[in-house]
Design a protein that fits this description.
This protein has one domain (2-322): Beta-galactosidase, Chain A, domain 5, CATH 2.70.98.10. Helix content is 2%, strand content 47%. The chain has an eight-stranded antiparallel sheet, with no helix packed on it. It is an all-beta fold.
Length: 330
């Protein structure tokens, strides 16, 4: 594995590369993972925006007016909202959070790529260390520090925009049996509505299998959270046509929730899926609190978690363990 300076469009980047994967990060734009190449198939797994110029947005800018690609860190919210509690009560939390548009400090520490950023409107520090546990698994370790004497409600989510091909299968832990809808374009379900997963029946004989991604021509997009806390933190995609798998794995004790946004051509005519492990639900900490699904960082304390991004040269697996390894037994 090697780490070296590179360029992404018109921006300076840092690349982490093994025999199997090549990942690029933008230190000055949210520490974003802008590209992830699976080398055995020569496939770009992160959504790319056309053009040679990166579409910049300022702090507190509009996320969808920017690049809208790759894997951004969402913190301390996804949806714009206002902080509820003293001493920051009424302070606006920007669209898709604070950190995706900020420059992060970065450095190479031996075989690890370090990134860190301080909050603007709130006193915290978010840090991450990117390394590889083997040639096919990228591990990101996170440390969140509350620098204040007050508890801080937050939502962290991995905003991964992953390219699809026809026939991809979404695989979730066995406990994923119910979902809660929060967004749809030509999809199914009103905000907050609960439904079965993976098979949805409309009561009139029509069934939809959400585990089998539909073609881009479906022109549908929908986002939902798996209902309740996960006991095992992972999700995976099986690319049956190209015969490989991609998985995210994370500790359910500290990252207990998972959102999925399947975009089958319904949004911007893009064909992708967002897999979003999260510390809280409903895309904003205030609504998560109403559902008793919030995450709280205590005064002068820290919060740790990790995320593995794994690639497998197979689709014959049933689950993924917390270390990011594929397992044939469920």
């Amino acid at each position: 594995m090697k780490i070296y300076p590179s360029r992404y469009k018109d921006q300076p980047a840092v690349t982490l590369e093994s025999e199997v994967v090549r990942a690029q990060f933008l230190p000055h734009i949210g520490s974003k993972m802008c590209s992830l190449i699976y080398k055995p198939r020569n496939v770009e797994l992160m959504v790319q925006t056309p053009g040679d110029q990166y579409r910049m947005q300022p702090y507190d800018g509009v996320y969808e007016a920017g690049e809208c690609s790759g894997f951004d860190e969402m913190f301390p919210t996804i949806d714009t909202c206002f902080f509820e509690h003293y001493p920051w009560q009424g302070s606006k939390i920007p669209d898709h959070g604070e950190v995706w548009s900020l420059p992060w400090e970065h450095r190479v520490e031996d075989q690890t790529l370090y990134f860190g950023v301080h909050g603007v409107r709130f006193p915290y520090k978010l840090e991450k260390w990117v390394s590889m546990t083997d040639d096919s698994i990228i591990r990101i370790d996170y440390l969140l520090t509350n620098l204040s004497d007050f508890d801080f409600a937050f939502l962290w989510s991995a905003h991964t925009m992953i390219n699809l091909e026809e026939g991809v299968e979404l695989v979730l832990p066995p406990e994923a049996r119910r979902i809660v809808s929060i967004f749809q374009l030509n999809g199914i379900g009103e905000y907050g509505e609960e439904q079965d997963w993976p098979i949805f029946s409309d009561g009139q004989g029509k069934q939809i299998d959400r585990a089998r991604l539909q073609p881009q021509s479906t022109r549908r997009a929908e986002k939902y959270y798996i209902k309740g806390k996960l006991s095992s933190g992972w999700c995976a995609l099986k690319y049956h046509r190209s015969q490989f798998g991609l998985a995210l794995s994370f500790p359910a004790a500290t990252v207990p929730y998972l959102a999925v946004l399947s975009n089958e051509g319904g949004w911007r005519d893009i064909y992708n899926i967002f897999l979003e492990p999260a510390t809280a639900t409903f895309d904003r900490p205030d609504v998560a609190r109403l559902h008793q699904q919030a995450s709280i960082l205590k005064a002068r304390s820290t919060y740790r978690w990790h995320l593995n991004v794994s690639l497998f040269d197979q689709v014959d697996f049933q689950s993924v363990n917390e270390a990011g390894k594929a397992e044939r037994d469920g």
